[in-house]
Amino acid sequence: MSIDRTLPHQGEAPSSYSRTHNNNDSQTTKTASKASSLVVYASSRQSSSTARWFRQLAVVCRLNVLLLVRYWKAALLQAIILPLLVVGVVYGVQKASTADDGKVIVGDSAVSTWTMPGISQCKPEPLSNACMTVVYSPQTAETTQIMNYFQTQNQARTNQELKIESQVWDDLNSVPKSNMGIVPVPNEKFIYDYALAHPDTIQLGVAFTKQEQPAGLVNWNYQIYYNMTHATNTSVMPGFIYTKEAGYNRVASYDDPYGAQLPNMIRAIDEALLTFLDPQHTQAQLDYSLKSFPTASKVNGFSSQDNLVHMLSNLMALPACITMIMAMLRVTREKESKCRESMEMMGLSSFNYWMAQWLTSWIMAIIQGSVIVALGYAFKMPMFSNANGFVMWCMFVLLAYAMTLLGFLLTTFCQKSGTALGFGFALLVAVLIVVPMLAQGMWADLWVNTSTGSINSTTGVVTPSEVTYTWVLCFIFPFLNFARLWGQVGTVALGSVNYTTGVYQPGPGFNFTNLTYLAPPQEYFEGLVPQPASGLTYQLICIAVVALLTLYFDKVIPDDHGRSSGAFFYLRSIGDAFRFIRHGGSAGVARQKSADAQKVIPYEGIPPQGEDSDVIAERERAVNCQSEVAIRISNLTKTYTKNGPGFFKNLYLSLCCCCCRTRRRSNKVENRAVDRLNLTTEPNELFALLGQNGAGKSTTMQMLYGVTTPASGNAFLFNRSIKTDMQAIRSTMGVCPQHDVL
């Protein structure tokens, strides 16, 4: 169908017909002396839709390439510098981890000796408010005398008096309110039960037993109880200062199952018994000393630097994540600057825009993947040198490309670059956490059902469980496929080191044939674990799925103007196909659209009072339009709705309205920018829309070229509705915005 059959050629004067009418405080002027912001091209000057599609694709691709060249420093950082830093860090960490392999650590042959001190007053531990230094049983005249000798000698060593309590402590449920010295208890069982009921309350305990022998002989036996919390050599080392947390935060290398307090208590009780049994009760002196142990020299064992490859796999995915974030910022900034909106006004389709993004994204992905693989060979890393180079190249290229496309998908949910940056960094953190876990073989049931099958009670044969793959997430998150591929390649590409001799045994290597068959680590998983080739296949499927989701959500999610195609927009194509068949081809569809555009459209509502006659005539002309016109606008209305305060603010206003002058606003505030506009324009005319600020000029033009949708009413541009045929309108209409589109 011809859109404009007789546009004036250069040098030809257009028609001089002009009319003026008022509607909503705006002024419409049809004149031959002013240029228009809308240009409708003649069909004779149009190229085919296919040629126009490729021309637009080339323009947007050229735009993206120019941006790469213009910001070459950022491109250089993503493609070369960042991969160099990542591979260099991985290589450096691997070398540093094996730097001390085989190193001889000279031992300390010096031996220190010091005199064992006495028993100091106990200090309460964090779990108790007070403590008992020594408890003893039973309380008799003899045992009390023995403990007196114990206290006298201990005071001479420590200059601290441990007071001997006269009252027997027989309450199992109570705890001391202050630190106590030497406390008698009923029996030995009480010591055991009280220590269980109140941990860290008793420091030391002793239970005496007196046995009468024939011929007047007497045997004294005793049992020592000690607190393991204090059993550490650091408590008796010279210069040691006791702290409340010393028992919990002690150094493990100093741990001693007996500790210094046990021999200290044994010496003190032996001295007290010897003094008690001596007829003259002469104070006994037993000299005990402590000696440190010398440490022998040792040789560090050997480890393989390949052990860290899986753990550092997240760093290898870092360049792809940074490229994804940069691509997200570029796309969202095009949204913010209205660049993409302007290109769509000029006829660029959403599919064409994303196709250009997908094509130009290969540039960065190919360069980045090639640089990483080349650096891996340059650093002679076994993960690269002992694996097929093409497989590694495909793995990194597909990762970078798929992550970029995943970033494009996330931008459909973002209107601001700050939001996109937040999404990008959140995904970056997920990659840094998840990739090394999967590369090391964790979460095996992400790929396969690892539940145990049934066991035959007679034969003992294990029947494997039904194969149930759970890799659906791999079709959305490409870094999951990368982690599995990295782990599978590493199982055969990496080597091992003899811990004693340090001899490196390289792995068998990952060849191209291993893509289709890689032996599982256990026979049970034979046929269950996906082969490496499926990882590349899943990555390609992931790319296709993410691309389709990007196209869908880009249409469904409303933009900042509230424009959306609806959740089932794809059903319109089916309706167009039925109309094409019903009306007998494109010519019949064009005739039907022309008939729909020339139907009588009644004026909505009641006309205002006191209108000028030319305004009434223009409205009647638009209502009863029975001929082909360039533009027909009927009852075009645009209402902007501003949401009121949020829930919490509404709650606050409702609660405080009785004590302040703040009035609660309504939930929604409506502002009608265009109110039932009706007008027509003839072909071969220059049309200028004039009016004061706020009259609705810009809103009307935005509805005509599809930036925003009308609240009600319709407009037809050469029989094409702005509600249903905007893409066709844009293919024949040019818009000159106020800023540079490209």
Automatic annotation (TrEMBL):
Keywords recorded for this protein, A-Z: ATP-binding, Membrane, Nucleotide-binding, Transmembrane, Transmembrane helix
A Pfam short name: ABC_tran
Residue span(s) of domain ABC-2 type transporter transmembrane: 79-437
Cell location: Membrane
Location (main, coarse): membrane
GO cellular component: membrane
Transmembrane domains' residue ranges: 308-332, 353-378, 390-413, 420-439, 536-553
Domain ABC transporter: 675-741
Xref: InterPro entries: ABC2_TM, ABC_transporter-like_ATP-bd, ABCA, P-loop_NTPase
Ranges of compositional bias, category Polar residues: 13-27
Topology in membrane: Multi-pass membrane protein
Chain intervals for the UniProt region annotation (Disordered): 1-31
A single MF term (Gene Ontology): ATP hydrolysis activity
Protein name: ATP-binding cassette sub- A member 1
Organism, scientific name: Linnemannia exigua
Organism taxonomic ancestry: Eukaryota, Fungi, Fungi incertae sedis, Mucoromycota, Mortierellomycotina
